[in-house]
Structure to design on (278 residues):
């Protein structure tokens, strides 16, 4: 019998025909011989595995730790630098390391991991039978991770945690006749984070909408330890909620549905489609 689909390593970037996830070059995917469409590994498994296996897998919610993948990246960069310095300077490598600091690009990963851990602890305090929290989830076919998913019966929060220094604010820029709102943290224009947050929410929505057509997805940028000023308030920018941990926890509890059964079914599906980043 001729195979109708093949597991291949992509020669070019592609998009999953089912969930619309962007698949990077060299990632594995299923390619349809007949239609020449591409399916990500998760979609193909969900569409072709036996019903009993699918139900069992959907009931499993793999454990994950907030900030784990960011901390692993920090450790990988730190260890690689140490090996390079000790290899280049066998005699005084230890002294060089003792007298020098890690590059800021490496330290940023540790700071980010700590921010995710702090926010994760706050979100875990919100968890109950109808509020399910998933941390550090991988987007199949992509290098990007979702820091936190908070699933309720009526709303899924797709949360990107950031630990930046500086005042978080919305600024209107441009001319008198053409102005736009931008996200700034201190002097840095961070508006690109808004687009990235919307993209993650779009991927999550596409992954869940087939089985849960009424599900709503809210993208969130949560700044941990940022300076908000005395009279600052959370705000929305291009549909993304920009906020801090305490306020986000209050929003989760206020907007969470009360149907534990529905929330758990959606969470099981989300955990299946977005496995732990480990």
């Amino acid at each position: 019998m001729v195979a109708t689909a093949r597991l291949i390593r992509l020669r070019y970037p592609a998009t999953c025909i089912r969930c619309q996830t962007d698949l990077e070059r060299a990632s594995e995917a299923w390619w349809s011989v007949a239609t020449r469409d591409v399916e990500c590994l998760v979609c193909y498994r969900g569409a072709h595995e036996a019903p009993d296996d699918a139900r069992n897998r959907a009931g499993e919610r793999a454990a994950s730790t907030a900030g784990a993948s960011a901390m692993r990246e920090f450790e990988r960069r730190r260890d690689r630098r140490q090996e390079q310095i000790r290899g280049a300077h066998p005699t005084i490598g230890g002294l060089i390391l003792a007298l020098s600091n890690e590059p800021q690009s490496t330290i940023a990963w540790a700071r980010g991991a700590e921010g995710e851990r702090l926010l994760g602890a706050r979100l875990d305090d919100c968890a109950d039978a109808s509020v399910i929290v998933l941390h550090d989830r991988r987007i199949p076919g992509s290098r990007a991770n979702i820091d936190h998913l908070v699933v309720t019966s009526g709303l899924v929060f797709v949360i990107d945690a950031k630990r930046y220094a500086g005042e978080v604010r919305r600024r209107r820029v441009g001319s008198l006749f053409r102005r736009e709102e931008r996200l700034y943290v201190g002097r840095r224009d961070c508006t690109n984070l808004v687009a990235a947050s919307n993209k993650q929410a779009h991927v999550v929505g596409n992954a869940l909408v087939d089985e849960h057509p009424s599900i709503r997805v809210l993208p969130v940028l949560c700044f941990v330890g940022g300076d908000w000023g005395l009279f600052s308030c959370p705000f929305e920018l291009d549909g993304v909620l920009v906020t801090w941990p305490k306020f986000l926890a209050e929003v989760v509890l206020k907007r969470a549905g009360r149907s534990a059964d529905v929330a758990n079914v959606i969470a099981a599906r989300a955990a299946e489609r977005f496995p732990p980043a480990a």
In short: The chain is about 40% helix and 25% strand.
